[in-house]
Design brief:
Structural class: alpha+beta
Bound molecules: histidyl-adenosine monophosphate
Strand order of the largest sheet: 1-5-6-14-13-12-7-11-10
Number of helices: 18
Largest sheet: 9 strands, mixed
Number of strands: 19
Length: about 550
């Protein structure tokens, strides 16, 4: 047999019981918090029609999903669960008389991402959707749910950032960008901001380090890959310019000048020239912004068959300025007003954003940052958007993302229902627990281990074990017919607190010999008393 058959595909993992225990712990905490606020669990299929996911995000999403064909057409493994929930609502599967609907789900999702630490091709999401309330207190409740889960898990040091897509959309509409073009701009804008964020993060790590190796091999190769990608895009454009095929005026050639240092990044890193790399990173970030600006201005963004929107350079510059606004609410909101004014749709969006932030204080949520660079890759967001990061998780630090999406249900042919929600990455919550030393000690497989010392007493031992279980005691009975000494050592290994030893005398007298595995004390008691004794021992009393 080929060994490779046994190798798991990249980005997939098995979960032995110790790992599962961590996931169950997190999931149980999440369930408890969400149910405390009245949310009910639902489940949707693992795969759905490809078009369901592509409707809002366009064909580009294909390369990020696992797509396969069936007798009913193309299907995709779900990359997220909001679209399936919106489908459920739109097709009348949920009782709308109980509006707003309060729904949650926990389950696997699949993305054809490049795997790395914290980023998998199969991962678990725990999400919430609040459907049917347009009010800012709904946004605030949803954000509170997320922070409450983190509090219940005892996770500290998270960074909550809140932005608003309605403000960005209203700005773009005011500047004359057609609505469908706005939708097509959001995805690339998210890619742009996350790339800039990554370059900034690497820069920070390098500038803080004086020596040593501040980046692991994965991060260094990601840094090199990102810089090289920008070099490649630049070179392609320069070649086109030389051949007279570029739509970008030749006057911009100087901005795209090659920088040979990009080929030497590994060398620079190895010789510890971190300042030099920081300089390259700054240049690459600038170039990425300029390239995007020029491409959008001169090639334009396609938003339908034969329809292209060309964004004037000054609109792009103002958009970048808008997205660079970040800070506490009392600084960011006046800055937004100063940049955008207060009239029309933009003014309305700003007021709505302010109300949502105010409502957060009613739920006791404080210490967040307004960050207008949050645009979120999924294109259905229409209002408040938010992300929660644990910076100590490094590149894959985002544990939660969500926001308001008021049009999705209607776009799926359902009633007009405003909605807001989020999803946690459960795997990343587990990583955050591990890194902060907050994983609770694993529960042993059983509390009581029953040892029949010979074949003749199996009948009695198994019946007694069943009674112990009926009284709620987590009991294992040996199924291995081993010698007493071996059995006792197995009981220890399993972490059982007590062993019950059954020989012919116990069977005859209807008793159980209970042995405390810590103190090694033993008592022989009738069944009912033995159960009481075991319970007292487990509750911390003396045996
Ligand atoms: P998202 O930000 O794409 O939002 O995903 C939510 C979370 O899933 C992320 O914050 C991250 O923790 C986790 N995640 C995403 N991709 C991966 C991956 N490849 N490996 C491990 N974890 C990952 C959504 O999916 C929206 N549906 C959230 C939402 C609900 N918005 C409104 N309602």
């Amino acid at each position: 047999m080929e060994k490779s058959i046994l190798r798991l595909p990249r980005g997939l993992r098995d979960f032995p019981p110790e790992e599962m225990a961590k996931f169950s712990y997190v999931e149980n905490k999440i369930r408890r918090v969400l149910e405390l606020y009245g949310y009910q669990e639902v489940r949707t299929p693992i795969f759905e029609r490809f078009d369901l996911f592509a409707l809002r995000s366009g064909e580009e999403i294909r390369s990020r999903m696992f797509v396969f064909s069936t007798d009913e057409g193309e299907m995709a493994l779900r990359p997220e669960v909001t679209a399936p929930i919106a489908r459920m609502v739109a097709t009348g599967k949920l009782d709308l008389s109980k509006k707003p609907l309060k729904i949650y789900y926990i389950g696997p999702c699949y993305r054809y991402d490049e795997p790395q630490a914290g980023r998998y091709r199969e991962f678990w999401q725990a999400g919430v959707e609040l459907i049917g309330s347009p009010y800012p207190e709904a946004d605030a409740e949803v954000i509170r749910l997320a922070t409450r889960v983190l509090e219940e898990l005892g996770l500290e040091g998270y960074v909550l950032r809140i932005g608003d897509m309605a403000v960005i959309r209203a700005f773009l509409t005011q500047e004359g960008v057609p609505e469908e073009a706005v939708n097509r701009i959001i995805g690339p804008l998210d890619v742009l901001t996350s790339s800039l964020d990554k370059l900034r993060m690497y820069r920070e790590k390098l500038s803080e380090a004086n020596s040593g190796r501040p980046l692991g091999p994965d991060k260094l190769s990601d840094l090199i890959r990102r810089c090289d990608e920008i070099r490649r895009l630049k070179e392609e454009e320069l070649l086109k310019m030389d051949a007279g095929e570029s739509l970008i005026p030749k006057a911009y050639e100087g901005l795209l000048e090659p920088d040979p240092r990009v080929y030497r990044l590994k060398e620079l890193y190895e010789e510890g020239s971190f300042d030099e790399i920081c300089d390259v990173l700054d240049k690459k970030a600038e170039e990425l912004v300029v390239l995007t600006k020029l491409r959008w201005a001169y090639y334009g963004v396609e938003y339908g068959p034969g329809q292209t929107y060309k964004m004037p350079e000054e609109v792009f510059d103002k958009l970048m300025e808008l997205m660079s606004i970040s800070g506490p609410g009392d600084e960011a909101l006046p800055a937004l007003e100063k940049l955008l004014g207060r009239s029309g749709q933009v003014g309305q969006a700003l007021s709505r954003f302010e109300e949502a932030l105010k409502a957060l204080s009613w739920f006791g949520v404080e210490g967040f940052t307004v960050d207008m660079s949050i645009v979120r890759g999924l294109e259905y967001y229409t209002g408040t958007v938010f992300e929660i990061d644990f910076p100590f998780l490094g590149a894959q630090k985002q544990v939660c993302g969500g926001g308001r999406y008021d049009k999705l249900v209607e776009e799926f042919g359902g009633p007009s229902l405003p909605a807001v929600g989020f999803a946690f990455g459960v795997d990343r919550l587990v990583l955050a627990l591990e890194r902060s030393g907050k994983v609770p000690p694993a529960r042993p497989r059983c509390d009581v281990y029953v040892i029949p010392i010979s074949e003749e007493v199996l009948d009695y031992a198994i019946r007694a074990s069943e009674q112990l279980r009926s009284s709620g005691l987590r009991t294992e009975v040996s199924l291995s017919r081993r010698k007493l000494r071996e059995e006792l050592s197995i009981a220890d290994k399993l972490g059982a607190r007590l062993a019950i030893i059954i020989g012919p005398r116990e069977a005859e007298e209807g008793k159980l010999t209970v042995r405390d595995l810590e103190t090694r004390e033993q008592v022989s008691l009738p069944l009912k008393e033995a159960i009481r004794h075991v319970k007292a021992a487990l509750a911390g009393g003396k045996t």
